[in-house]
Amino acid sequence: MRIVSDGKKGKSYLTPNDVATLLMVSPVTVRQWAQKGGLSALTTPGGHRRFLRHDV
User: What is the pLDDT of residue 9?
Assistant: First the structure.
């Protein structure tokens, strides 16, 4: 599992695949939860979702 860290704020971010692995669901399910507002996600400038580890 790769955790991306924001050095300035000390926050750890997870990819949809990482969240799916932790919650034992598919990455598609994680994306759907994010789209419906059930899981908070940040969007990178490139359009990729990242999830704060403490929100998962």
Answer: 62
